[in-house]
Amino acid sequence: MRATSPVIVGRDEQIGLLSSALDAVQRRSGRALFFVGEAGIGKSRLVGECAYRAYGAGMPVLRGRATSTGLVVPFRPLAEALASRFRAAGTPTDPELAPYHPALARLVPEWRKGGSPGYPETVVELAEALLRLLSVLGREAGCAILLEDLHDCDTETVAVVEYVIDNLADLPILFLGTLRPEPGAALDLVRSAERRHTATVRELGPLPDAQVRALTGACLEARPQEIPEAVHRRLAERAAGNPYLLEVLLADLLDTGRLRRTDDGWEAAEQPDAAVPSDIVRSWARRLERLDEPVRDLLLASATLGSQFSVTVLQTVTGFEDRALFTHLRSAVEAGVIAPDGAAPDRYTFRHSLTAEALISSLAPAERASLARRAAGAIEHSGEPLDEDGRQLVASLQLAAGNRTGAARQFAEAGRRMLASGAHGSAVVLLERAHPLAAEGDRAAVAESLAVARAEGGDLDGALALADALPPVPARSEAAARRGRTHVELAWAAVMAERTADAALQVEAARALLGASPPPGRRAALAVVDGYLSLLPGHEPGPGQKPPGPAEAEQAVREAAETAEAEGLPVVACQAWQLLALLRREEGFDAADAALERMLSISTEHALPVWRVEALVRLGANAFMRTGDASRLLSARAAATELGALLLTRTVDGLLAMNAVLCARWEEAQEIVDRSAEASARVGDLSAHRYLLLAGATMAAHRGRRREMDRALAAFRRAGGEQSLLVPLRSGLCRAFGALLEEDRERAAAGLDEALAWELDHPSYYYLSGRYGLRPLLRVLAGEADRAELEEARAAPGGCLAWNRQFLELADAVLLGRAGDPAGAARLMASFGACSAPFPVAHHLGLRLVADAARADGWGEPVAWLRTAEEYFYGAGVQPVASACRAALRQAGASVGQHRGGWDRIPSPLRTSGVTPREYEVFVLLPERPGNQQIARRLSISPRTVEKHMASLLSKTGRADRAALCEFAAECAGEAV
Predict the structure, then answer these.
(1) 885-888: long-range pairs with CB below 8 Å, 24+
(2) What is the DSSP pairing of strand 259-262 with strand 308-310?
């Protein structure tokens, strides 16, 4: 007889917490809750209550559970949770989720594309995609994701959970997780989240005496006072306040007739002390004895497989025919021992994980080992190939049977397969299980695989420590070749982490093992690592070695690429061609693109989707820099999105944002920055995040908005931008260009000199800092540079880029005009017009910059250029340049038309106070607290005129003094932003 309470007893506080969390989620205020408690304490009942209330509020509910079989299945609870929702409601069709389908395909089979090679998404990419999915599901009423038994889940799921709970504060998502207080990654996460106040945690303790009595009454449908005192005392003592144990022990009393209902209520048939089982194991042993023998055998075999089991595997182990198998399963379900697993049609689960443990514990040790041995043999010899789950199950059974060596082999093979699939965390767990179990002769090979798994999973220190502890191997042996390969892989991981010294040590160890003449494939891999290593800051050649020159380095990498192709190592070949493209930039972008095209061809031929998109992105970036056309970059983004490569997509977004800035497509640039800057920070992609922040700062600078630029650069600095390779872009493309829009050529020149000084001390592959374009132009205008300096800039790879070429054409025109060749200067101005067509701000700034020189040297059409520039910058609201153009026109004796408009630019409170457009031009400069002379220079008016405007502004705004007026201007500027 089953004895289950229809109500939850003793958990009022937790139910209230759930209720308030659900209410908050409906107001788009995300919540994360964790219930921690021992097995049977009532966590699942609370999850069920949460699901019931969420359904009642119209929320989508996603419910999953980690497997307690000991199998390491990456993302199992998450896949089960999504399946629980989509099986009934169908997969969502919202267009905004399309970019995330590839990343979520691992969890949602319907989003897997047939024949696609797949993308080994990072955990962070998957977590971000899941967060977007949950946000869409919860858009109308909120949504709840409920994950149980997290103490049993894989490390990848723990990482996703951490990301989700850290980022759901403003999203309509309730996350509820349950776990036992067992040491492990899940409990560490929960404690950390509680300390960081990103989650609410409640410990579920045992029920006190009064609530034990109330729960017993609920199970028996009786008032608490009707429970016989002896029964209550014994249940309270044996169950120790654990609701599940209480229900099992109570069921045993009912089944044996030692507690029965009479006309006068419930009574104990005999003294409970005499017959009540001493523990839960004996209770289940008695229940098994009352079942038919085939059902009993089936349950014991099922328990051997774990608290959740596959019908297919169970049939393999028991040998039952279909009809008999399902008859016995039905009997076990009716007995309340097992139930169908709602998340997987082919699986059943024990009503509680303690049930399986208790059934196994009821057997003698020798009988348990024999049963596990038979089950392992049946699965291994079934004729079906073993996948990772199957290997783990066999390994667990072998271990239970006492076969440590056999278990180690299966765990190790499953771990290596996980590593190959990109599930680094799960690979580490399985290989760590295998390592102490392995035979002496196999242990080193397992440790090598474990070191690589740790390195690729981000634990480079742990990987290197493990590699250092490996026993020596004979030279020129198969073991030495394998060990050498391990050191090469660790060296690559160290290079990617920019750990120069560690990478060098691993290369040295690999060379020592592989000898002076390693196999061609290993030699190629080492050459590629050496090439990347030489570019890292702080790298010094070994004793007696000298750094290779550019031609020598390029030749070595070229040979490595060809060898890798010949040896059938496409990944190494892609690494080599990518490095070659970087080295060949110094020869010109045509040579660099040729290397990338080869990389694209290899990655396409060998179905390496990540490397293919890498090639497309780099080709697109080169095309954008060479021509200003972003079409190829957009194609690369589409490919990255289709693949689900979210990190690559953010990288492309940064490039697209900067392209939009240079092309003055402000709304497009702002949309990209708003969309991707926060997301890139959330996933920890600092490289893309910094570039996007710099794009935002550059946009403010190119619009003449100094305060916005400074705020954006402050964010860039907080993100570590000052220690990145973007420093020259910050100094030149952003600050120096912005200074020119404030008519401050001295500050612009200083910024460009700062960028050049940084580049001379650091290797740099960012060619838009001004070194090859804007700086030569300003130096030519100032009479500080001659034709030789200009031609040097033209000959450099950066000189062929569209953004730089426009400024070089202007510099050349100035030199020709100064040399008395107006026709030549005119031809170059026409070329400038074509080059600068994609870049309207730079185009009009260029006209303003060269107009003075053209007027002084008597060439070109400076008056027309000044009129064009003045009209553009007045319309763009860049008053310093517009005013300078008007002043230059007056000096040239040309008429200057007045803009009678401009009132619409003035905020309503100032307009009603009578502030004029000319006064407002002064007012918008005041947040920077400039002096009258500075304002006069920037607006190209006299200091006396500035004094008049200041006096008028003080009177019209009612401010007491200049400081108060400047403070008021700063407040108005902040409100405008």
Answers:
(1) 885/848, 885/851, 886/940, 887/940, 887/941, 888/848, 888/851, 888/852, 888/855, 888/862, 888/940
(2) unpaired
pLDDT of residue 844: 96
Task: Determine the distance from the C-alpha atom of residue 524 to the mean position of all C-alpha atoms in its chain, rounded to a whole number.
Answer: 31
Sequence-distant (6+) residues with CB within 8 A of 286 are 252, 255, 256, 277
* Rounded Cα distance, 648 and 671, in Å: 18
d(CA 664, CA 662): 5
Note the pLDDT of residue 540: 65
For tokens 């490996």, name the residue.
470
Position 275 scores a pLDDT of: 36
| pLDDT value for 746 | 94
For 110-166, give the DSSP string: GGPPTT-------HHHHHHHHHHHHHHHTTTT-EEEEEE-GGGS-HHHHHHHHHHHH
CB 259 within 8 A of CB 269: yes
Print burial letters for 427-455: b (CB count within 10 Å at least 16), e (below 16). Answer: bbbbbebbbebbeeebbbbbbbbbbbbbb
Listed as ranges, residues in the chain with pLDDT below 50 are 1, 115-117, 271-278
Token pair in block for residue 599:
């990389």
The tens digit of pLDDT for each residue in 105-140 reads 888 888 877 544 455 567 778 888 999 999 999 999
Strands 338-340 and 347-350: antiparallel
- Distance, in Å, from the CA atom of 171 to the CA atom of 27, rounded to the nearest integer, reads 9
Please provide the size of the chain in residues: 977
Angle, helices 520-535 vs 478-496, to 10°: value is 20
The Cα 925–Cα 606 span in angstroms is 59
Contact between residue 156 and residue 427 where contact means Cβ atoms under 8 Å apart = no
Q: Which residues of 58-118 form beta strands (DSSP E)?
A: 61-65
In contact, 688 and 651? CB cutoff 8 Å: yes
Helix (H) or strand (E) holding 421: helix 404-421
- Write the pLDDT tens digit of every residue in 866-918: 999 998 998 888 989 999 999 999 998 888 766 656 666 788 778 767 788 88
Q: Which of 966, 937, 936 is nearest to 954 (CA)?
A: 966
* This prediction's pTM: 0.65
Angle, in degrees to the nearest 10, between helices 802-818 and 787-795? 160
Under 8 Å between Cβ of 191 and 164 = no
Give residue 446's pLDDT.
Answer: 93
